[in-house]
Amino acid sequence: MGLLLFLTLALGGCGPFGGSSGVSTDSSQSLAALSWCDRPLITFQDDSTTAQNMLTKWSDVKDQLGFTSYLPESFPKGTCLALAGGSIHNPIYGGQFSITYVLPTVGPVSFSEAPLHPGLSKKTQCIQSAQDSKTMICVGAIADTSITIASRQPQADIEAMFGNLKADVAWVPAGSASPTTPSSTAPASTVTPTASK
Question: Which residue in 18, 93, 158, 197 has a CA-CA distance of 20 to 30 Å to 66?
């Protein structure tokens, strides 16, 4: 439920986007070559202590998630990274990784990943969001990772995206300023992407 809530907030916070529903593969860029939509925003909560420290560097958390992260290797030029975060060492679900991109003709595309629990189906299943009739939420799995993708793309496009995910893709924008820790009064839904570079 927490994963779906994060995706809904992230999608809702990016505002309405029009344009065509397909993702063009022409003139694509690697994820590390993309820009931030606004200011860098990476926030992971470390639940190993009661202090629940906030970590803002991917390098500090990627080996502590307890699963392998999967992302596309590239997105169309004009895509920007809105936010990324999650948690590590959670006593209930272990680690969790969520990241949202804003594609130029599609709008927000959010990925939320966690360890694959025994007994869960690896078959991709999709449902329409109850809070946004234009958003499709698809859940699937690769190896030890449960992956949820939420997007306003057609279901077939999202399912095709699952087939193109790669392990441990470098996604932190190169040359970006040090990420800042968000204010406790500024939820993820207040992120407003600006025009991409």
Answer: 158
**How far apart are alpha carbons 125 and 127 in whole angstroms?**
7
- Structure confidence at residue 26 (pLDDT): 56
Sign of the CA dihedral running 191, 195, 196, 197: negative
Question: What size, in residues, is the chain?
Answer: 197
Could you write out the three-class secondary structure of 104-120?
CCCEEEEEEEEECCCCC
Residues in CB range of 109: below 8 A, 6 or more apart: 100, 101, 102, 103, 149, 150, 151, 153
Domains of the chain by range and CATH? 2-12+21-174 (3.30.200.100)
> Alpha-carbon distance 168 to 62, whole Å?
9
- Using one digit for the tens of pLDDT, what is the confidence trace for 95-142? 999 999 999 989 999 999 999 988 777 889 999 999 988 999 999 999
> Rounded to an integer, what distance in angstroms lies between the CA atom of residue 137 and that of residue 142?
17
Is 0.70 surpassed by the pTM of this model? Answer: yes
CA 36/CA 123 separation, integer angstroms? 32
Contacts of 187 (CB under 8 A, 6+ apart): 9, 13
